[in-house]
Specification:
The complex is a heterodimer of chains A (90) and B (607).
Chain A: H1 5-19, H2 21-53, H3 57-89
Helix pairs in contact in A: 2-3
Chain B: H1 2-23, H2 25-49, H3 55-64, H4 67-81, H5 84-96, H6 102-115, H7 117-126, H8 136-147, H9 152-183, H10 194-212, H11 215-227, H12 233-246, H13 248-256, H14 260-282, H15 284-297, H16 305-324, H17 328-338, H18 354-357, H19 360-385, H20 390-393, H21 399-405, H22 414-435, H23 440-473, H24 479-503, H25 511-538, H26 544-571, H27 578-586, H28 590-606
Helix pairs in contact in B: 1-2, 2-5, 2-9, 4-5, 4-6, 5-6, 5-13, 5-14, 6-14, 6-16, 7-11, 7-16, 8-9, 10-11, 10-12, 11-12, 12-14, 12-16, 13-14, 14-16, 14-17, 15-16, 19-22, 19-23, 22-23, 23-26, 24-25, 24-26, 25-26, 25-28
The chains are: A mainly alpha (90), B mainly alpha (607).
Chain lengths: 90, 607
Amino acid sequence: MKFDNALKKKLLKKLKSYMNAEAEQLQQEDDGLSKVLKKLKKKEKHLKALIAAERDKDEREMLEQELNVVHSQRKKGITLLSSLRKKGDK
Amino acid sequence: MRNTLRKVILPSIMLILAYGFWVSPDFKEISAGVAIFLFGMLALEEGFRAFTGGVLEKILKKSTNKMWKSLTFGFTAATVMQSSSLVSVITISFLSVGMIGLVEGLGIVFGANVGTTTGAWLIAGFGLKVKISAYAMPMLVFGVMLIFQKSKSMKGVGYILVGLGFLFFGIHHMKEGFEAFQNSLDLTAYAMEGMAGILVFTLIGIIATIIMQSSHATLVLIITALSVQQITYDNALALAIGANVGTTITAVLGALSSNVVGKRLALADVLFKVCAGILFILFMQPMMGLVDGISSVIGLADDDYTMKLAVFHTIFNVAGVIIMVPLINPLIGLVTRLFKSEPDIHAQPMYLNEASLEFGDTALEALRKETARIYEKAIGVIAKGLSLDKQEILSDAKLKQVIKAHDKAVEYDIDDVYEHEIKSLCSAILDYTNRLSTDEATSRQVSRIRLANQSILITLKDVKHLQKNMLLYIDSENPHISAEYNRLRQRIAKVIRRLENIRSQEITATSILSLDALKLTLEKNMSLLHGRLDELIREGHISADMAISLMNDSNYTYSIINSLIQINHNHLKSEEGSETEAEHLIALNREEINSVLSDEREVVERR
């Protein structure tokens, strides 16, 4: 019984993913967190620009409040990501 | 059993009618008139439906958003059309398609009742009778021509014209059919003195108007009879009262083909006229004195009874409106209780079907869409529960102004909608999720959707509790308590608006995380309110009862906003995905929100 190369590769990949299911799961979580953190960073910049341009006091206060929230979310996200990476290293 | 009964009843009624048609041509004409009239109502509703959400709806909303505007609208329309019944019928079709609310509808009907009195002046003063039924045929022709056009609004105008044409046509046939009975009406035969005479002539007025399908026609009859002294002056007044009550028959007929809201309006109209009628019968003597007084002020001769009748007719309707406008909320409460809405097509799930149960992803998508639909409905109910308008909350208008524009409490039966629509939709969702075979990932998503629906039900229950005191206090004479309750309304409206913005964000945005800013505002506002509440009590601006109500209701407001956030948290991006999961992980909990808040406070204090 002969296997061609493409089929061999496919089977090996499947076997690898089966053996490394947990690692893949961690990788997925890592990807998700990284993407969201990038978006939050962008949002933070955008909010800062909005605050600088806003003249209405109430509106600026609201934006500042939102900025604080985004900042805390990023902090939480970074902590989660680093603990996830530590877990992956072990 | 029910189906068998239906199968028997319908053919039996048809047979009886057919026999009636064979025996009496007049009966045939009257029945045909009723059928044409009802068909006209259907066409009219179809026409107005084409304009829902469009310019006409906006114009209507703008011209009826205050009670005085609704009254003026009704008054003008009835003066131009010279028929309050027609205005009532058109208002019922506006209501049936949801273009206006019951309060606005009642305002128009009340205004129309005053507007119709101009007819009595025209008849009594100039012997003039505006006959718009002559326009029925051209209306039908132009209407049908427009129906065949491609444009939606042209079609709409076409249906409205055809509807009005058929209404006039139907009324014309009913009148023709009743003419045989009208000729046999000899008023002198019933001449009686005292209260008995008043009651008998009121009844005759009611019957004559039902027969002639026009209170104007009855007024002509009364004025003629009065001028040849066939009846006494007080009997004529009793007839006029009867004519006013009898004229509601057209609205009642119109409501037959309408939905429950239309029926409520027709019933409210009948109650209005009957109450005013009873009141005037009881106070007939003082009213006659008032009529005499006003007549002498405007320079009418003592024996000018025809003009005095016009004065009486005007006082009757104006006084009726003055008495009933402040009682509009209890009246709405009463008719809503009497006409409970049954589960209708809106209470049927739109996306959940057997076929999609087989495919996990399709079923989840159906559940998401159905939940979004219930949420939309719930937002409408919450808006009405707070005496506000959903469209205005979601518009760009300043919320302070929106709240100011709706500064009067409007009763709205949340329980009715909850029981008949929302609850059955939510239980359909639960039932559907129970039948769904799920793996671990799907069951997580299903559980979020379930939680979202649960939060919708909790929100509505909380709004119901909040509504009780809110109705009492938003237009209270105590400016402090009314300001606080209006602030609570504004906070909920603001959250609804911000949530709508978040929901409409593009899919790449971090929508779940955007909800955290709302959670922060919620906590912040709660502590601000506690501070204000202490001050209000200390300064004695509000009574102990008010303070307790406000404390409870601020908790309800907190719960409503929290549930609204939870609904969106669980519903937004409820699909599985690495980013969604990450967003759920990063989202701040209550403790973390409070720590952001205390950090903020520290910064402010340092400044």
